[in-house]
Amino acid sequence: MTDLRARQPDLLSLAPPLRDGIGRRFEYLRLSLTDVCNFSCTYCLPDGYRRPCNRPVELSPDEIGRAVTAFAALGLWKVRLTGGEPTLRRDFDAVARTVAAVPGIRRVAMTTNGYRLAERAQAWRDCGISAINISVDSLDPARFAAITGHDRLADILRGVDAAQAAGFESIKLNAVLMRGINDDELEAMVDFVASRDLSLRFIEVMRTNDNAAFFAARHVAGQTVIDRLEVSGWTRLPRQPGAGPAIELGHPSAKGRIGIIAPYSQDFCASCNRLRLSSDGRLHLCLFGDGGIDLRPQLTGDDPAALLARIRGLVATKAPAHRLHAGDSGATPHLASIGG
Ligand code: SAM
Ligand code: SF4
Fold first, then answer.
1. Pocket-testing residue among 32, 34, 134, 148, ligand 2, by greatest number of atoms within 8 A of Cβ
2. Which of 150, 176, 210, 215 to mutate to test the pocket of ligand 1 (most atoms within 8 A of CB)?
3. SS3 for the chain, per residue?
4. pLDDT, tens digit, for every residue of 221-271?
């Protein structure tokens, strides 16, 4: 790592910001640390994680450092640590510290199912993570257990309290809204976050290779969520410069915001500002794209210029939009495989 840090000033001065073929700029890297998960969410890994026979080795902290250094040199300044369940990695804290120390990285965020949050919140904050998203798909303990396969809602909510006590700058609860499973909880979830000064993200169920039948039965359109929120006084906020594809709503008496991730809505791809790196070093230009492009040879090598050139060349080929409306959800088997 030291050699790369030493070269960082050169990299920064050489590199104009990363753009794709239609002029979109990229600021945000979603970095998957592992595809392994201990939960079995019905929309993601309903049968739990199954280790493939030829499972590739996860990126090492050094490879992660090289990758993040290169993306930072290309203008990306925010990194989200995700998975699978990223906190299953034994070296999670060390990886977080490595990422937070890369020059140019101004925000390190993480997404977790929260199973270790109650004990680890302060330690993760101390590693330099300033924003955390915690998946909470139901506030009813029995439903939570049915959705995730784990009767641990109380632990996760203790974790949310611990995150608040640890002083994260941003805490969001992520909820995937599913028809007939938890869509009757929308208002209760909104009250829960509003009374605790938290933000909430509703995520439309996304179709992946493995969940087509589940998607067909359970998908709820983001617009119906917006309609229900507007009835109780939430209003749509103007899109901030550099903001990602979430639609945001605010309420005069709530500090936190509500975001809707609605990939099936019009123009979702126009504001795409993110790239994804899987835990085995594949660059995914789109969540609903193909199998990703292997960057490992450049990540293990010691030629930062070659890594930058490869990323730049690949990003130039990013498709203008996904093909979900044509029934094509790409090659991703489930979001645990590339980090959501
Ligand atoms: N294990 C962590 C967690 O669940 O928060 C991080 C990884 S998970 C893949 C990241 C996010 O993707 C979670 O908020 C999860 O709810 C969401 N997700 C997973 N599969 C999804 C799907 N098919 N549709 C919509 N959201 C999904
Ligand atoms: Fe695991 Fe997250 Fe997928 Fe749930 S959504 S199975 S916690 S990776």
1. 148
2. 176
3. CHHHHHHHHHHHHHCCCCECCCCCECCEEEEECCCCCCCCCCCCCCCCCCCCCCCCCCCCHHHHHHHHHHHHHCCCCEEEEECCCHHHCCCHHHHHHHHHCCCCCCEEEEEECCCCHHHHHHHHHHCCCCEEEEECCCCCHHHHHHHHCCCCHHHHHHHHHHHHHHCCCEEEEEEEEECCCCHHHHHHHHHHHHHHCCEEEEEECCCCCCCHHHHHHHECCHHHHHHHHHHCCCEECCCCCCCCCCEEEEECCEEEEEEEECCCCCCHHHHCCEEEECCCCEEECCCCCCCCEECHHHHHCCCHHHHHHHHHHHHCCCCCCCCHHHCCCCCCCCHHHCCC
4. 999 999 999 999 999 999 877 677 889 999 999 888 999 999 887 778 888
Q: Which atom of ligand 1 is nearest to the CA of 39?
A: 1
How far, in Å, is the centroid of ligand 1 from the Cα of 197?
Answer: 23
Which residues, judged by CB distance below 6 Å to any ligand atom, belong to the binding site of ligand 2?
37, 39-41, 44-45, 83-85, 113, 135, 336
pLDDT digits (tens, 9 = 90+) for 96-146: 999 999 999 999 999 999 999 999 999 999 999 999 999 999 999 999 999
CATH of domain 2-337: 3.20.20.70
Residues 321-330: what's their mean pLDDT?
79
